[in-house]
Design a protein that fits this description.
By secondary structure, the chain is mostly helical. It has one domain. The protein is 52% helix and 9% strand. It is built from four helices and two strands; from the N terminus they run H-E-H-E-H-H. The protein has a two-stranded parallel ribbon with strand order 1-2. It is elongated and about 45 Å long. Belongs to the phosphoglycerate kinase family. It catalyses: (2R)-3-phosphoglycerate + ATP = (2R)-3-phospho-glyceroyl phosphate + ADP. One of its GO terms (molecular function) is ATP binding. This is Phosphoglycerate kinase. Keywords: ATP-binding, Kinase, Nucleotide-binding, Transferase.
């Protein structure tokens, strides 16, 4: 986990947009001292992954539906 956290931080420094999500992932990044060295750390967990995959999320759909 620490090696992956460092790799993400290095990729961010090189200009990559890095996104991580989930409670365990966030905790691992914080423990490695790398949470503030990536582009975005989401607390959305699996919903973050589903959103990035382009799946429909009921909460997002409710906000974007126009009557």
């Amino acid at each position: 986990s620490v090696a992956i956290a460092r790799a993400l931080a290095q990729a961010t420094v090189r200009g990559a947009i890095t996104i991580a999500g989930g409670g365990d992932t966030g905790a691992a990044l914080k423990q490695a001292g790398m949470a503030d060295r990536i582009s975005h750390l989401s607390t959305g967990g699996s919903a973050t992954l589903e959103f990035l995959e382009g799946r429909n999320l009921p909460g997002i759909a409710a906000l974007t539906d126009v009557p």
